[in-house]
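Hi L.,

You mentioned the student needs an example of a multi-chain input paired with its predicted structure. This one should do, with 912 residues in total across all chains.
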Amino acid sequence: MQKKKLVLIGNGMAGVRAIEEVLKVSSEAFEITIFGSEPHPNYNRILLSKVLQGDTNVEDITLNDWNWYQENNITLYTGETVTSIDSIKKEVATNSGRVEPYDELILATGSLPFILPIPGSDKKGVTAFRDIKDTDEMLQASQQYKKAAVIGGGLLGLEAARGLLNLGMDVSVIHLAPYLMERQLDPTAGKLLQNELEKQGMKFLLEKQTAEIVGDERVEGLSFKDGTFLEADLVVMAVGIKPNVQLAKEAGLNVNRGIVVNDYMQTDIPNIYAVGECAEHRGMVYGLVAPLYEQGKALAKAICGAEKVPYEGSVLSTQLKVSGVEVFSAGDFTEDEEKKAIKVFDEQDGIYKKLVLRGNQIVGAVLFGDSSDGNRLFSMIQKQEDVSDVAKVSILQPSGGNAGESLVASMSADDIICGCNGVTKGTIVEAIQKQGCSSVDEIKACTSASRSCGGCKPLVAEVLQHTLGADFDAAVQKEAICGCTTLSRDEVVEEIKAKGLSHTREVMNVLGWNNEEGCSKCRPALNYYLGMVNPTGYVDERESRFVNERMHANIQKDGTYSVVPRMYGGVTNAEDLRKIADVVDKYEIPLVKVTGGQRLDLFGVKKEDLPSVWEELDMPSGYAYGKSLRTVKTCVGEQFCRFGTQDSMGVGIALEKKFEGLWTPHKVKMAVSACPRSCAESGIKDIGFIGIDGGWEIYVGGNGGTHLRGGDLLYKVKTDEELMDITGAYLQYYRETANYLERTSAWIERMGLSHIQSVLNDAETRRELNMRMDEALSTYRDPWKEIVESKKTKKELFETVVTS
Amino acid sequence: MVNKNITKVCVGSIHDFPVSLGKTVKVNGKEIAVFKLSSGKIRAIENRCPHKGGVLSEGIVSGDSVFCPMHDWKICLHDGNVQEPDSGCVDTYEASVEGDLLYLLIEE
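Structure written out for the whole complex:
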């Protein structure tokens, strides 16, 4: 039987993808011919910005190399443009005079960049940003010229601008709308993005309309409608694209904005199909890559006469990363009369999240600064999920694994995980199972998933975890430690250990932080992790400490400090009280207050007085300012109390002496009560001890603060030695596995009590944990004393320069 | 015409200013936060966060910015502008190093 002839016009991502789908359904059905105007095999147009940005080169973005066409017996004519279609004779003609008959014809002519119809747009140095030729022109211009103007502050314009910035050009972006990427972002996110890009050196002229491109032969500048002028030697037009439909129109196909197709990508003329950016489906023309794959599938099934699967349109999502700025938008994200928004705006970390609901259905979302939830929200939007049963705000919070797990689990093997490179879940699963990929990076190398924009990384990781099944640990949810990196706490700690990193700058440099010197969130965290990994070798960085831990006192709102000397177990004596009283008098300390942790707090001490105050108190620092052991609160116990069954003060003092000065992920409070009346409030402490007849109960994960939580019974022990052994091991395990600034109450819920018990049940593990704890404790020196003895530190940190 | 009076004040040896940290300097009752950046550059700004008056000299310094120790506002040390999403600005002062000595130029 003779094969049917299939002709594809357009050798780009959509067309070739459709052919791939056709080959999947039936590799023998057609004799295939492809015409492409560009002199290249099919390449990934999305990655042109990476070529421009210098991250990769043209060869690396090829999707189907010459061999692929050969292997699949495809006749490819590059550099040849189809100029007419005769749908009666069923043949196409090209600009080189070739005439090719067809049985089935696919139009994938894509889009043309929209060139503003203004005077001068034909001058040298004016280019679009659409293909390899344009990219080359920009690369060349950057070697000779300095000033670039990008017209258009959308996705493409900003990608181009970032690339030109990398090439050392002075870049201004001109945009008609009052904020950037108005088709994907709302005003808040648009402004945040602008701010971030301005920091990177990009300049913006918003609400500007270009009137003319001026210059002799080559462009010299832009003049605007408002009469202003901008010098430029290179002008990139990125104002939009329009479907390339000229050929289809002339062939008599029904063309609206794009070539009108039905749910099977069929045009109104039999045997002619259209796919990709040139096609208009249910009134929509898509300019993004993800819909192309779904369209290609529908087309392939129809053209091969297989069981038809209709294409029913796509909900769009955009995930973009320009130099570390994560942006995500999906669906219908503008609120109005009937659509209401939920917004979370974390000013501290520069994170903005917005969710748009119509009634109880999620219809759209915008994320800025942290787009890790993008995939999950996108899936909810696609399913138009009903959220009436869910606490609204919790939708915007990273969930504890359940949502992500079910998302990946519920996806079919054909579902696309990586929209940029069209990688399905099935392909990734195969790479894990057959090629032994065990990390996101290995999967990336194997399948190209997450190679382009990186937005699908969390999803790839979930597929990995889900596929590995038994090894999948739901608790290990990746969360970047701050906006400076995409790495999670575990990854960072792992790298510190593996690479032997020894200071924060080195970590940020080696692990590719996007802020050279980090931020107020990651620097203290890294300082802690480095000290935790290598307690004896690491030199603490005071410049990476929050003020209180650097000054070893608590800063107050007026810039004075408070001083809390150590009072082990809340027990004091006449001598200490006398010293405190003398210091209060001498330094005119305005307020002395008894704290909740059974000690005294001296408020309103001037910064320059701190060292002398400490010297005269001659008591150790109470670490009331630190992510550290604070106090061990005690009841009076058997020494005086008629109910007490244990020596709570003695044990409390011993605990405080042992663990004082220990750096922990967050503050740690303890309490020891001598009987179940729990007068020291042992039930709401990070570790609380309650004396019982013949031993102790140890409660953990209690919290009396923001996150009120009753402690869980960890163990009952008989002796004080066992109590110390368990406490040391437990605290060390917390130190080694908690996120910085994660209280034990949150940590225990994340880890699970039974998991922690299973770790601590093993005597050998306990011994090792205690050994590492002892090593950490061995570095303790009273910081107040150290400062008092160091003239240099006193001068650098505590003296104010006063000139007259 | 406005008369501006610029005073040049010596604030001590450049070596007395710790790297990547701030130092409080008082000039004629005015409190100024002076920073020696990791690049060695000196920056001087008004020592008062526009938010709630936090002492900026005690903030964490990263690149060209300082994070206020009170509520983590981020302030650019070059131009004194508070970074978005917050807004506001603090005064900045020119600094010059001559030999080992650091001078601030104070406009009256």
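You could point out the following to them. The mean pLDDT of chain B is 90. The radius of gyration of chain B is 13 Å.

Best wishes,
N.
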